[in-house]
Specification:
Number of helices: 12
Cofactor: Mg(2+)
Strand order of the largest sheet: 2-3-1-6-7-8
Strand content: 5-15%
Oligomer: single chain
Structural class: alpha+beta
EC number: 2.7.7.65
Number of domains: 2
Keywords: Membrane, Transmembrane, Transmembrane helix
Helix content: 55-70%
Number of strands: 8
Enzyme class: transferase
Order of helices and strands: HHHHHHHHEHHEEHEEEHEE
Distance between the termini: 29 Å
Domain GGDEF: 226-358
């Protein structure tokens, strides 16, 4: 199966009104809004149970504010969501703390929420910082609030463990918030890596990654001399497919062949879209002799399974050049050799494989031309129907 691209991940995980570059912050605000609404719903029953109906009604309004922030965030209005969250959180913490005192511990929720309100992607940084620092200042002011200003005895008729529970929840929220940031960061890092190393259409590795990989294999071969084979294949008459059926069908053929390659070969094999309708296959630890039966079975399978388009069969065949990567030979020279074999296959009738095992019997510095760098080794053969 092809790996979905970063944009595919985003399109599946966000509302259409949310811009892709804002997805990370949308994600965090979304889940904070959900958790905030649930927490205030629980507070309603808590305050009713301990005979504080006024505070229960305050939390009814709090639930509505958090749901409003959730809706605004889903619509892409991230600033509006942050304003609703900060107004509700700062107001709630102030009223409940002034009513019940600091012993109840509801002002501790200002700590994670002051961090959350800095996330709006479209708000100027100075404004986000200002709103966050206002939350911290409110926390410090409430923490030092004298009992003489309280209308009720501090922590009135709430369990003595209430402050500990609220502090635990607030600190847990901060840890969860940090973990969500980490998860989203790692998700985007993986997506960026995929974008840098994968072809966006087929999901196979791209040319840059494969070139870097071959360079590393060449270096490793200087130490362990392990075999490595490569195959360069090209779809026969692909331009005619594009001209007759359109580029959309041509792209579908590229995707189909890519999926077939992924199913046919090992996960340790490196499959690359080299450019256009060309594919480069790298088989580390495998000789040309061992890989040839697998390549021929793939060629035959593709030959026997034409693609379908509106009830019409479109024959898909490939021409292929297969060779090995000898120690001491630059990988780009080996690719050129595979390209030469590929075009021999095309010149000799297409839908065939030409392979050649090559060896270097002279030092690398002595070679000035590609043809001088190879001498026929174990075998050279054609594979065709």
């Amino acid at each position: 199966m092809r790996e979905p691209s970063f944009t595919a991940h985003i399109s599946q995980g966000k509302p259409h009104r949310v811009h892709s570059q804002n997805y990370r912050k949308f994600f965090l605000i979304h889940w904070a809004s959900v958790i905030g609404a649930i927490a205030h719903l629980c507070f309603i029953f808590l305050f009713l149970a301990y005979d504080h109906p006024g505070l229960a009604w305050l939390n009814v309004g709090g639930v509505l504010m958090w749901l409003g922030a959730l809706l605004a965030n889903l619509r892409g209005n991230h600033n509006q969501a942050i304003y609703l969250i900060s107004i509700e959180a700062y107001t709630h913490a102030g009223i409940v703390t002034v009513t019940l005192g600091t012993a109840a511990g509801f002002h501790y929720y200002l700590l994670p929420l002051s961090c959350l309100v800095t996330l709006s992607p479209n708000m100027p940084k100075w404004r986000s910082l200002l709103i966050g620092f206002l939350g911290m200042l409110e926390f410090l002011a409430l923490e030092r609030l004298p009992d003489s200003l309280l209308p009720l005895p501090s922590g009135s008729n709430l369990p003595s463990i209430a402050a500990t529970l609220n502090l635990s929840v607030a600190l847990s929220a901060m840890v969860l918030f940090a973990m969500l940031v980490r998860c989203v960061y790692e998700m985007q890092e993986r997506s960026l890596t995929t974008m840098a190393t994968r072809d966006s259409l087929t999901g196979l590795f791209n040319r840059r990654f494969s070139s870097d990989y071959l360079r590393q294999v060449s270096i490793q071969q200087q130490r362990n001399k392990s075999p490595c084979s490569i195959a360069l294949l090209d779809i026969d008459h692909f331009k005619q497919i594009n001209d007759r059926y359109g580029h959309k069908v041509g792209d579908a053929c590229l995707v189909q062949i890519s999926d077939m390659l992924t199913r046919h070969f090992r996960s340790s094999d490196v499959l690359c879209r080299w450019g256009g309708e060309e594919f480069l296959l790298i088989f580390p630890g495998t000789s040309v002799k061992k890989i040839m039966p697998v390549m021929e079975s793939f060629r035959q399978y593709l030959h026997d399974n034409p693609t379908q388009h509106h009830g019409e069969q479109i024959p898909l065949t490939i021409s292929m050049g297969v060779t090995n990567l000898p120690p001491g030979i630059p990988y780009d020279v080996v690719i050129n050799r595979a390209d030469h074999l590929l075009y021999r296959a095309k010149a000799e009738g297409r839908d065939r494989i030409i392979c050649q095992h090559v060896e270097s019997r002279r030092g690398q510095a002595e070679y000035g031309h590609q043809d001088d760098m190879f001498e026929d080794g174990d075998h050279q053969q054609d594979q065709h129907p």
